[in-house]
Design brief:
Strand content: over 45%
Structural class: mainly beta
Radius of gyration: 14 Å
Shape: elongated
Number of strands: 3
Length: 50
């Protein structure tokens, strides 16, 4: 996947974040200064296989 360097007009996004024991989906909004702020995160636990 490639990321564009052009300015985005999106005001919100969902992002998948990988952790060691679980993955997370975060909901983020763009602040007035252009930075992204996380408002919510949901954990997606990984199944344990024996």
């Amino acid at each position: 996947m490639t990321k564009s360097r052009t300015a985005s007009t999106k005001t919100h996004r969902y992002e998948l974040v990988h952790g060691e024991e679980a993955d997370f989906v975060t909901y983020q909004r763009r602040r007035e200064d252009g930075l992204w702020q996380t408002f919510a995160a949901w954990m997606i636990p990984r199944a344990i296989y024996n």
